[in-house]
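Query form — protein N-acetyltransferase domain-containing protein

QUESTION: What is the three-dimensional structure of this chain?
INPUT:
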Amino acid sequence: MINIRKAKKDKVEDLQELNNEVIIDNQKYDFDLDLGWAKSNQGNKYFIKLLNDPKICCLIAETNKIKVGYIVAAPKILAYRKSRLIEITNMGVRAKYRSMGIGTMLINECLKWAKLQGFQKAYVNSYLDNQMAIKFYKRSGFSEIDVSLEKNL
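ANSWER: The structure tokens for N-acetyltransferase domain-containing protein are given below.
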């Protein structure tokens, strides 16, 4: 059975470990990723800050005390938009546990929390080549609204 719960403030290493797996998995889409970032001091400080901010949703999925996924969402301020936006900034499910509905459970709990906080729209981005993630987000009700571009200097 999968349990979705709020991430514990004193267990920052849970988020670091799960995020580390996401970064390693995403290197096939972005060769510029710092593969040691999640477990670095900088990563540690980043996740501690998230865990201590009441405006941020940080959830963990676990089964039999094994952490199998997580989601982080934070307010996204776009002054030119009328709606209050929440952005899913981090999300991942361990490869062994994918396609079991865990991502859907995480996103549903997160969006339920966001709605209770008064957010009106949710925003997420994905690597263009990560078609599995894009299909997942579309199945979850997200639609394409913009394109991000990058250039090496």
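ADDITIONAL NOTE: Residues 3-139 form a domain with the Aminopeptidase fold (CATH 3.40.630.30).
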